[in-house]
UniProtKB/TrEMBL annotation:
Protein name, UniProt field: VPS13-like middle region domain-containing protein
Record-linked PANTHER family: INTERMEMBRANE LIPID TRANSFER PROTEIN VPS13D, VACUOLAR PROTEIN SORTING-ASSOCIATED PROTEIN VPS13
InterPro entries: VPS13, VPS13-like_M
GO biological process, one term: mitochondrion organization
Domain of life: Eukaryota
Native species: Cuerna arida
Domain VPS13-like middle region, chain residue ranges per copy: 60-289
């Protein structure tokens, strides 16, 4: 169900979906894990202002609230690469990318990028990491509860990562907070018939094989800051991620160690050269770099974290 109301300056949209799934129909690597993303329910509320707000008189340019229940996602590096290769075939996507690049060259009078106000709430999200697309062994990450929200502040404001620091120019930041509570990690196995306590993913099930890797459930807090005025100045990193992982104590046995090592080698580290774009023979002259700035900054703090092998 989708309902849209458009006025002179504001467009409101509400949508609800009973269930949604994304399937991998590739003949070889999609046989075992056909369903890659499933959710039992999705509610969306979106509000968009149609006129520009150069002087930042509004709180946001666009508002998006997303509520999802029972989210399950199966991650393989090859599937993501397949999606990227698919979209590379469209010239329309190239035109969109070109327009984005040209938009970065706008004048300072055009102000910051689009301010998208987010509220995302997901109950019981689960990420499944197979050892490979051909293996029945799975690492299951139960994320407990996921909450995402953001705000827009100027650099140097109290609460930002660079608060108290003097910069040559202030820029507008999109500060996003990601909260994961009651996280758990365990090993599982793909089966074709349901078993007590197994997780259903459409055409197959994943059953718990051993106990949890964690002694107690843990939590992860992330703060992601994006510079919305990169076309004007770079006094802060274009993106800065700061996180805190707390109260994690894990014990990994030999089988679990083999599973983790295997998925790092055959899933996350899988060779996908057959899906990479072909390199052109055009030799481009190196441009002299006149300005250098920090692009990404990642800082993860581990508080009371221990792992026993």
């Amino acid at each position: 169900r989708v309902v849209t109301q458009a006025g002179s300056d504001v467009t409101d949209t509400e949508a609800s979906v009973g269930s949604f799934s994304l399937l991998d129909l590739t003949p070889v690597h999609g046989q075992l894990y056909r369903e890659k993303f499933l959710t039992a329910g999705l509610n969306l509320i979106m509000k968009k202002y149609n006129s520009p707000d150069v002087y930042l008189t509004r709180e946001y340019d666009m508002y998006l609230r997303l509520d999802m229940t029972s989210v399950q996602y199966v991650h393989t590096k090859r599937f993501i690469a397949e999606l990227q290769a698919f979209f590379r075939q469209f010239s329309q996507l190239q035109r969109i990318l070109d327009s984005i690049r040209s938009a970065r060259q706008v004048s300072e009078l055009q102000g910051p990028g689009t301010r998208l106000k987010l509220e995302v709430n997901t109950a019981s999200p689960v990420i499944l990491l197979p050892m490979s697309s051909q293996s029945n062994e799975v690492l299951v990450a139960d994320l407990g509860k996921l909450c995402v929200n953001n705000r827009f502040v100027m650099s140097g404001t109290h609460g930002t990562n660079n608060s108290g620091q003097e910069t040559a120019k202030e820029v507008l930041l999109d500060v996003m907070q990601v909260q994961l509570d009651n996280m758990d990690i365990l090993s599982g196995q793909r089966v074709t018939q349901p078993q007590p306590g197994s997780l259903c993913l459409g055409s197959y099930w994943v059953t718990r094989r051993d106990g949890s890797l964690l002694h107690d459930k843990c939590q992860l807090q992330l703060v992601v800051e994006r510079n919305l005025m990169t076309h004007i100045a770079h006094p802060v990193p274009d993106m800065r991620i700061q996180g805190t992982l707390s109260a994690l104590a894990a014990t990994v046995d030999l089988d679990q160690y083999k599973l983790i090592k295997g998925l790092l080698s055959f899933n996350i580290g899988e060779c996908i050269d057959d899906l990479l774009p072909l390199e052109t023979d055009t030799v481009q002259e190196e441009e002299k770099v006149s300005n250098v700035w920090l692009w990404n900054s990642i800082h993860l703090e581990l508080v009371d974290v221990s792992v026993c092998l």
